[in-house]
Prior knowledge:
The protein has 336 residues and is of the alpha/beta class. Helix content is 31%, strand content 24%. The longest helix has 18 residues.
Amino acid sequence: MNDSPLLRVTSLKIAIRTREKDLFPVNSVSFHINKGECVCLVGESGCGKSVTALSLMGLLPSPPFHLAGGEIFFKDLAIHAMSSLELQDIRGRHMAMIFQEPMTALNPVFTIGEQIAEAVNAHFSFSPEETRKKTLAALEMAEMPDPGLYAASYPHQLSGGMRQRAMIAMALACTPSLLIADEPTTALDVSTQDQILQLMNSLREKNGLSLLFITHNMGVVAQIAQRVMIMYAGRLVEISPVEEFFTKPRHPYSKALLDSIPKYDSISGQDENTNNRKERLSTIPGNVPSLEAIPSGCPFHDRCPNAMARCSIETPLLMETGRDTEVACHLYSSCR
């Protein structure tokens, strides 16, 4: 890996301004992504994953959102200090994003080719013929079986998997260095999901593309990630290499997420829970707190089986607990 991260985020705080007070969907978040690396951002709905991604792209509506603190560096560019006009030169060209639902992200009145061409022309002064070649090349990169046919198609004429490939083609048209994917496989069937993940892995390996992949699906994490970041109530609570995360999760929230997954017996080919109908899947009690009701101290303490007295008072900070592993939990700070 490159010594200098492609993306570096330090103490990022995103606020929503209300009449009473500022609310923080993202609070003191720090991480980095190296060149050619896939990092998965994982957590329940409402944890702040999408807000984090949109803040990196400068796509959060202001108001109500605003940057309350922290820094975002892409290579040597200070993203956090850029104007909207300056960000337009970065978005698509150097950093691109795939959204969760392509049917709402794609414009229904323009063909796929026209929409990809628009993204290309926003950053390059190509002739119409050069733009068309670039458009077809992007569709080929996304492994569309007939680029010419799909370039002339409208979004409603494509299947869910092909619409997602069209979104990938649009994101890759200007050959960005970083691709942010916000749960791009959620609405897809298992076989199509597998094809999309294989495509992204191939692009990362062949082109040195860096990926920030947002998901709540642990199967996706196991298939695509090099590192995992666990987010809860706007804070990162664990950062770990993917192998270590699955074999030795540190944070109680990480353990609870993994415990809630059905256990599959690779020998019998059955869900282990079917062998004992009385055994129920483990669940995490309670819900992710709303922004107005995030508890003091560790935001997970009221759902945590290992909570101590200090957990409701002191907010734990990310600390190193091993090579490339960081955890925000008093269980580890109390051992030092």
